[in-house]
Amino acid sequence: MIDDFDLYANVERPAGHPDRMERCRQCCGHVYKDSNQEVKTPQASFSGNQHRERCVVDDCLSPPQKWVYFSGSLYQVSSTKKTWNQSRSDCFQKGADLLIINSKEEQAFANRFQKYMWIGLTDVTNEGSWKWVDGTAMSTSYWSSKEPNGGKGENCGDIKNFNAEKSWNDESCSLSLLWICEKKLYQ
Ligand SMILES: [Ca+2]
Ligand SMILES: [Ca+2]
Ligand SMILES: [Ca+2]
């Protein structure tokens, strides 16, 4: 019964107030659908005796607000294309960063989006020394065959060959591509 799902807003205002959508968006940051398409709220911050407000969860989950949950993180694939740096800025604005792949499972999950998209991998500071956007060195890699092949002309990582487990490619950072943000729920 997704349409009847109740959320609890932090702000006291009458229902139907023009700011309602803004309040819904505040709620939406805490709402996601899990892999079974069930609506979940990962934090209990809307309970208690605050004024109760109803937001239709589909408002929260329609593009471009849609976040997908997997193993402790929320993920959002863009609907527009940007350079790697612009993509990263967009993730920052959403309290997230570009995707960091920490496991074989997360690699498989990312491929399932079937999108040619930027991930949070770069060798811009030191050619050939690939790092994730959190500063950690890339240890396990999933480069496509013959990648990375771009030398100093290709310093940003993407998922390109998504039908294979080894899907990564290095690319010129100034190319415009889709991108994927990851927001860790528990630091
Ligand atoms: Ca991750
Ligand atoms: Ca490079
Ligand atoms: Ca390449």
TrEMBL record:
Ranges for domain C-type lectin: 70-182
InterPro entries: C-type_lectin-like, C-type_lectin-like/link_sf, C-type_lectin/snaclec_domain, C-type_lectin_CS, CD209-like_CTLD, CTDL_fold
GO molecular function: carbohydrate binding
Transmembrane segments: none
Keyword tags: Disulfide bond, Lectin
Keyword hit for Disulfide bond: yes
Tagged with keyword Disulfide bond: yes
Name assigned to this protein: C-type lectin domain-containing protein
